[in-house]
UniProtKB/TrEMBL annotation:
PANTHER family xrefs: NITROGEN REGULATORY PROTEIN, PTS SYSTEM FRUCTOSE-LIKE EIIA COMPONENT-RELATED
PROSITE patterns to which the protein is assigned, alphabetical: PTS_EIIA_TYPE_2
Name of the protein described by the UniProt record: PTS EIIA type-2 domain-containing protein
NCBIfam families xrefs: excise
Domain PTS EIIA type-2: 92-235
Superkingdom in the source lineage: Bacteria
């Protein structure tokens, strides 16, 4: 899937000016097509997984020194359309999915397979098939973010229908996931979206969430679905109001 500058700006919650500056500085992967910049979904996804996230802005930045332009530079029309469709997207996806606190597996492959055996009916796909797809993605690049959070997902699998599904897993013990910060994983968000853009949007939102101290404290307590959804709804309402 080819993305335009406007698409990437909306997905990452930054201005188009910021994207153009990152392009000029070589800080974001892109290619030229008919004299215009285009972005590969897979390259942007990998870039998001490997980038540092600024706690105070909630936006993807190539380094801690990078500063975002003021929010007023983002087009108001774009912000309004996102607010209605994306503000509570993570809440809806988790509501459609599940929160599992009783997964017993203590290593990556076994955890993936145990989780998929529990939720494959929701995804309407054979658990062996979806497990293999998830593990294939992990072999290409581990999906650990930072601070003990991972977002397992596949390269190409797209859900049928208009809904996204996020399955949250709090394993019995932290699991070695090969994360860039080398920290074991205590919270996993298995991400399944119904379109490439919604997948990238949810991935960006989860990466933002993984930088929040308040959220990390909650995840360590292994909340049930009701408690987690209440927190996510409140957090998304605050993020959307910025």
């Amino acid at each position: 899937m080819d993305l335009k500058i406007k698409d990437v700006a909306e997905l990452l919650n930054v201005s188009e000016t910021t994207i153009r500056r990152w392009l000029a500085e070589g800080k974001i992967p892109a290619y030229r097509l008919h004299h215009q910049y285009r972005f590969s979904k897979q390259e942007i996804q990998d870039w998001m997984l490997s980038c540092r996230l600024q706690n105070e802005t909630g936006n993807f930045l190539p380094s801690e020194e990078e500063q975002i332009f003021p929010a007023k530079e983002v087009e108001e029309e774009s912000q309004d359309s996102k607010k209605g469709m994306q503000q509570f997207s993570l809440f809806r996806a988790i509501h459609q999915g599940a929160v599992l606190t009783d997964i017993q597996a203590t290593e990556k492959e076994a955890l993936v397979r145990e989780t998929m055996s529990r939720v494959s009916e929701k995804l309407e796909i054979d658990p062996l098939v979806i497990s293999d797809l998830l593990l294939d993605r992990e072999r290409l690049m581990p999906t650990g973010l930072s601070n003990g959070i991972a977002v397992p997902h596949t390269r190409d699998f797209i859900l049928e229908g208009p809904k996204d599904i996020v399955v949250v897993v709090f394993p019995k013990e932290p699991v070695d996931w090969g994360a860039l910060d080398e920290k074991p994983i205590h919270t996993l968000f298995f991400l399944f979206a119904c379109s490439d853009k919604r997948h990238l949007h949810l991935l960006a939102k989860l990466a933002h969430l993984s930088s929040q101290d308040e959220a990390l404290e909650l995840f360590h307590s292994k909340p049930d679905k009701k408690e987690l959804l209440e927190y996510i709804r409140d957090w998304e309402s605050r993020v959307g109001a910025k």
